[in-house]
User: Which sequence fits this backbone?
């Protein structure tokens, strides 16, 4: 994916922009969500705090309110009770005053109630059982003066519905809104609780509440003793009392209402519930005593009651009648009574809960709004991010394309060029480094194209020259005489080679028979190498051969050739040359030298040594140079080694020269007396190539070896061409070979060859008969040369096709084997038509002699 | 060249002594053909033949063909080194029954 620059750039840009975008989005989202969480928490805390604080505040307010209300109620009730108390004290002091001052009052009549006077507020008398009015009439009529006071009290509006006094003498004077009928005229006040209570307390006494005997409801009485002092002794005379129905107190209790809820209670000193809106019916025991209930063991109830009966002021929470309530309480100051104001907690805390609900609702709506906003914000953020991503991708693509476009163009161009289209021109619009590179590349391509064109031309030229040189090489090679030379000559053995350093060389050798008994030999070296030398070599070779064939005098030959070469020799080229002529019958070797290396000569039985040579001046250098010919007589077995300086100056890799010294040493060591000229050349060639191994051949190498084997000593036999002479002919050859020392074991083959040729002549050469055949034998110890001549019908037996020697017997032709056998048995066979004669020349080397090498 | 003819357990043996050339081969040829007239197996002993030309080869080939046509066998025994080389060079070693020198 990232193998192209474009993709890499694209990836980098997109990664960067996306990364930044994602980071930003993440930060934004984190912030938003964090804020939401923070706000939620804050709002929650705020709501809770407001609610709790409100509850606390409200609780405080309610507590305070409750307490205040309780105190107010207590004060109100106390006030009402105080009014009753005051009237009671008034009645008591009025009675006491009357008894202390009997003189100031006239007796007033008072009577028992009569029938029909029930429930009429008339002052009336009741007496204890056993006490008759008549016995205490004076005192009663005195005491009756209190009735005005009692009546006055009754008309006050403080809830008093009965006023009365009880006197220790056993009577009872009363004004009662609900007076009992005449059947109740007996009543002993001194046994009544209100009387006993005040008497024992010796002061003001409040009774417990009780159910009024007249059925007027819950009532209580306040009683006060009064005293009489007689004879210096003060004693209790009686008790005055007010009975009151607690309706107006009850109204105070019942009317208690706080904020549309709540109620009041009134507890006595025992903690019994005297009043409560819940208490609508009172139970009594068999004696008419009230049976009051207490609060149960609900939470806080006992403590509340304890505090209320203890006369304390305060507010408590408690569970009353199964309901959690606040209770404000305050004492009345009478009988340790206590007023409680009760409000249910749920009612009291309703506003707080309301507020909490409102805050919660507000919080919820806020949170919802916030969530909606956050969702919207997130959505917007995502949308914007998405758009930004698309924009980033698009821009990155465009940017990457703009950056990599030129590179791609360049790449395509380079590919095209590397594919071989050197005409391709890279077009890159930009002028930046890529553009410059493209221009440079275009210039390079152009130069490369030129260079390749030049190279191609040069190559073509070189190939053409190489082809021509190749032809020149072949021409030069063909100009040199073929090897092996003169197989039909037994007087000498010769071999030569020329290895040009380049395709063509300036060295050459040449040899040719000047006549039947004279062999010309040339070895030469043109100055320089290669083509110019080769051209000059051709001229020199031609001139030398021509001159040597024209005249016997070698001095004259060189003189002439030198002048011919020196003439118009603008390039001042020259040739070193050694030429010699061997007289084959005598071994006389005449030679002349023109600045060439002197050859080495081996005298049979002795080693090689340099031939004594007059140096002479090079050919073609100057005109009119005189050359001196010299001569020596070769004996059979003598060998001459001719060479050019390409041999002596062949150098090895280290630059060392092969040298003349090494030539002489190698010749003496490597070449045995029995060696033929080809072997000698081969040994020396091997030695030189071994020496120069790895080094480039510096100069043309030429070697020529001439081995003189002595006069031909050919024997000749001429017989009639008749198979009857076959025995004579083969005997002649056998004798010849035996005489020359040719190995007897190998002498059969030449005889068979001669028989085949002779029989062929005897049978076919002379159709009319009468012809003859001449056999010549020239034999050395290792080689025999046989020629057979006839003057018959010109016929080349060698043109006969060879038989198929692979055929089975039944398909074989009986004849036709003879000439084939000649070929296989002999090393060399040749047919010539010479001077009207058929001449077959055959030669064979002794295998044994070669094996000795 | 002389030819000594004798019989052994295989048949007729022609012991040749001397050169077999153009002039002597007709004698060899007639000897072989004569021997094949009477024997199923003719052995030509070449142990003493130092020289063999194409004419001798011709005689041997004729004899071989004659033997084949008659269902007889012509065997060349103990050829010398030179004769063997001649026989080999013309491919006769693959045609004739040759028993090398043991």
Assistant:
């Amino acid at each position: 994916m990232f193998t192209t620059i474009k993709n890499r750039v694209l990836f980098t840009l997109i990664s960067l922009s996306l990364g930044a975008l994602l980071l930003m989005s993440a930060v934004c989202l984190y912030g938003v969500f964090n804020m939401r969480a923070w706000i939620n928490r804050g709002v929650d805390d705020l709501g809770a705090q407001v609610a709790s604080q409100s509850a606390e505040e409200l609780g405080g307010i309610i507590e305070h309110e409750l307490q205040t209300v309780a105190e107010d109620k207590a004060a109100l009730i106390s006030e009402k009770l105080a009014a009753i108390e005051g009237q009671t004290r008034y009645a008591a002091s009025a009675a006491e005053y009357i008894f202390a001052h009997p003189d100031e009052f006239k007796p007033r009549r008072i009577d028992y109630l009569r029938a029909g006077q029930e429930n009429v507020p008339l002052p009336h008398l009741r007496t204890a059982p056993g006490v008759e009015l008549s016995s205490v009439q004076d005192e009663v009529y005195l005491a009756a003066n209190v009735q005005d006071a009692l009546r006055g009290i009754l008309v006050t509006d403080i809830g008093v519905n009965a006023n009365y006094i009880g006197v220790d003498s056993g009577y009872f004077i009363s004004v009662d809104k609900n007076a009992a009928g005449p059947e109740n005229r007996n009543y002993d006040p001194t046994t009544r609780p209100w009387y006993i209570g005040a008497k024992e307390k010796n002061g003001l006494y409040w009774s417990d509440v009780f159910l009024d005997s007249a059925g007027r409801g819950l009532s209580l009485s306040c009683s006060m003793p009064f005293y009489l002092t007689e004879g210096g002794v003060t004693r209790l005379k009686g008790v005055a009392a007010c009975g009151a129905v607690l309706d107006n107190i009850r109204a105070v209790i019942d009317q208690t209402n706080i904020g549309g809820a709540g109620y009041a209670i009134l507890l006595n000193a025992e903690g019994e519930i005297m009043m409560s809106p819940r208490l609508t019916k009172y139970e009594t025991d068999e004696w008419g005593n009230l049976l009051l209930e207490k609060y149960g063991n609900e939470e806080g109830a006992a403590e509340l009651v304890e505090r209320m009966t203890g006369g304390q002021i305060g507010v408590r929470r408690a569970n009353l009648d199964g309901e959690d309530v606040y209770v404000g309480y305050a004492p009345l100051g009478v009988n340790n009574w206590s007023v409680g104001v009760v409000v249910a907690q749920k009612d009291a805390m309703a506003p707080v809960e309301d507020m909490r609900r409102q805050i919660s609702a507000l919080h919820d709506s806020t949170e919802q709004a916030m969530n909606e906003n956050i969702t919207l914000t997130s959505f917007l953020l995502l949308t914007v991010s998405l758009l930004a991503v698309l924009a980033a991708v698009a821009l990155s693509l465009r940017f990457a394309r703009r950056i990599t476009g030129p590179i791609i163009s360049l790449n395509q161009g380079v590919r095209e060029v590397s594919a071989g289209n050197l005409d391709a021109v890279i077009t890159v619009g930009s002028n930046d480094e890529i553009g410059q590179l493209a221009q440079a590349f275009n210039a390079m391509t152009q130069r490369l194209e030129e260079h390749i064109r030049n190279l191609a031309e040069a190559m073509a030229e070189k190939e053409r020259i190489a082809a021509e040189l190749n032809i020149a090489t072949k021409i030069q090679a063909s100009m040199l005489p073929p090897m092996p030379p003169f197989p039909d000559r037994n007087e000498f053995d010769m071999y030569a080679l020329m290895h040009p350093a380049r395709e063509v060389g300036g060295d050459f050798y040449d040899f040719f028979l000047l006549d039947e008994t004279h062999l010309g030999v040339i070895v030469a070296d043109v100055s320089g190498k290669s083509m110019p030398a080769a051209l000059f070599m051709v001229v020199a070779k031609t001139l030398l051969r021509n001159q040597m064939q024209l005249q016997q005098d070698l001095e004259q030959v060189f003189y002439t050739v030198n002048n011919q070469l020196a003439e118009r020799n603008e390039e001042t080229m020259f040739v070193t040359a050694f030429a010699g002529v061997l007289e084959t019958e005598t071994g006389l070797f005449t030679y002349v030298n023109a600045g060439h290396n002197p050859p080495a000569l081996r005298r049979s039985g002795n080693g090689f040594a340099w031939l004594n040579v007059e140096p002479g001046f090079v050919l073609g250098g100057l005109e009119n140079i005189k050359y001196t010919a010299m001569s020596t007589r070769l004996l059979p077995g003598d060998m001459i080694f001719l060479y050019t300086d390409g041999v002596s100056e062949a150098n090895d890799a280290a630059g060392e020269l092969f040298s003349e010294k090494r030539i002489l040493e190698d010749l003496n060591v490597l070449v045995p007396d029995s060696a033929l000229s080809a072997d000698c050349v081969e040994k020396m060639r091997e030695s030189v190539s071994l020496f120069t191994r790895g080094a480039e051949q510096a100069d043309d190498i030429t070697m020529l070896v001439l081995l003189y084997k002595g006069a031909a000593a050919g024997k000749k036999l001429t017989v009639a061409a008749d198979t009857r002479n076959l025995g004579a002919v083969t005997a002649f050859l056998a004798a010849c070979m035996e005489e020359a020392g040719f190995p007897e074991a190998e002498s059969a083959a030449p005889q068979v060859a001669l028989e085949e040729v002779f029989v062929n002549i005897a049978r076919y050469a002379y159709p009319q008969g009468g012809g003859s055949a001449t056999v010549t034998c020239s034999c050395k110890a290792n080689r025999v040369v046989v020629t057979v001549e006839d003057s018959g019908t010109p016929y080349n037996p060698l043109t006969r096709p060879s038989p198929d020697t692979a055929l089975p017997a039944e398909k074989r032709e009986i004849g036709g084997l003879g000439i084939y056998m000649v070929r296989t048995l002999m090393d060399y066979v040749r047919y010539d038509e010479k001077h009207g004669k058929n001449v077959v020349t055959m030669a064979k080397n002794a295998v044994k002699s070669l094996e000795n090498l | 060249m002389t030819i000594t003819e004798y019989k052994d357990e295989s048949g007729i043996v022609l012991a040749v002594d001397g050169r077999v050339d153009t002039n002597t081969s007709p004698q060899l040829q007639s000897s072989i053909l004569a021997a094949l007239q009477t024997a199923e197996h003719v052995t030509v002993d070449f142990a003493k033949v130092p020289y063999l030309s194409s004419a001798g080869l011709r005689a041997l080939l004729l004899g071989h063909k004659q033997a084949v046509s008659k269902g007889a066998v012509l065997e060349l025994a103990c050829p010398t080194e030179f004769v063997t080389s001649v026989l080999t060079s013309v491919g006769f070693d693959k045609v004739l029954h040759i028993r090398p020198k043991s």
Remarks:
- The interface with chain A takes residues 21-23, 50-55, 57-58, 61-62, 64-65, 68, 81-82, 86, 89-91, 94-96 of chain B (CB under 8 Å).
- The beta strands of chain B are 2-7, 12-17, 41-48, 73-77, 97-99.
- The longest helix of chain B spans residues 54-70.
- Chain B is about 40% helix and 25% strand.
